[in-house]
Amino acid sequence: MRLAGVTSRHGPSRRRRRPARSRPGTILTPCRTAYAAQLTQWRELYDRARPFLRDLEPMAFAHAMMRLDAEISSHGEVIAELLKLRNRSGTDEASGPD
Fold this sequence. Notes:
single chain; mainly alpha; elongated
């Protein structure tokens, strides 16, 4: 039985495939968009739940929203840096080794 994705250093699939080149942010942009959608959902839920929240529950909402906001900011910074590196090199070299 062969397991998909499992390789052995002794097997015929010794060579690793190099990742295809992609534009900076190709992977991070959809993640950032997903985090932004989650943040919107949390804010809407918080607005509906606010009259019923007690004790530390508002803080739990705030904590979840702050974490999502931090993820969004972080992804934005990484994408901006990748674009700077790409523009500085004049090629797609910043997107990864060939």
